Amino acid sequence: MKQLIIIFSLALTGLINVSSFAQGGGIVLNPDTPRDGYYDKIHYPSRRVVPYPYLREADVMWTRRVWRIIDLREKINQPMYYPTRPTNLRKNLIYILQEAVIGGEKPAMIKGYDPFNGDDFKVEMTVAEIKGIGASVDSGKVTRPYPPYDEFDTVYTTDFDPANVKQYRVKEDWYFDKQRSIMEPRILGICPRMAVYDKNTGEFRDYQDMYWLYFPEVRKVLVNEEVYNPYNFGARITYDDLFMKRMFNSLIYKVDNTYDRRIEEYVKGIDALLEAENIKDIIFKFEHDVWEQ
Questions:
Q1: Number of independent structural domains in the chain
Q2: 29 part of a folded domain
Q3: Per residue in 19-39, is it b (16+ CB within 10 Å) or e — as a string?
Q4: Does the pTM of the predicted model rise above 0.90?
Q5: Which of 35, 36, 68, 181 has the most CB atoms around it within 10 Å of its CB?
Q6: Predicted local confidence at residue 27, as pLDDT
């Protein structure tokens, strides 16, 4: 009886929506403005990066450096590609990275490094240089749609299109920690790759590396950004979880070697794919061989 009196009193003051009880729901506070959802998400924005376990040089029994390509056209990788334009609840990976490097709703948080000077994070790029990637300014002539139908010069401005980013390079180290008896990777850097098309024919030409990012810095941004979970809409994971749990597919295109060359430089076609799988198999078997010895 007391609960009914309290609910009736709150309803009179306009603090709750009584119609929610008729639909079998609970108490819903009247929002000032409509929102896309029925509860506030406060967990992800307050998350902090889980630090890597401490690692001593003396405990590293074996290590191998690997470079990979993540192709967003593969089905398992598509949560990083869609939506191509941000919605109220979702952002794709390149939008998050661009916002963190250039700034937008939030100030710039991480630095970008020139991919044409190696992948060792030595040459820092300016915000203006990063903004210019994928953007162009062209001039041409246009005929006026009204008399005297003369021609005049105009300028066409093309902005960066996030939908053109369809691949990522990943640089990582695999190591065996004898203190914890575990083999695990640590991602060092990530580099978005943009598809380049011919201006006249629209045909695909090649992929262009945009900038390298130091992944330990990127984690501070990714830990507060949700990624789509196809199995449970209510149990979203963060982009940091996606990378730390290895919830993506990739292809090895380089491993540390004497000549510092990529796989495609000494084998082609199907042989390159087999070589990439062979490298993956070597890393996989090393841990098993340690336990067998």
A1: 1
A2: no
A3: eeeeeeeeeeeeeeeeeeeee
A4: no
A5: 68
A6: 45
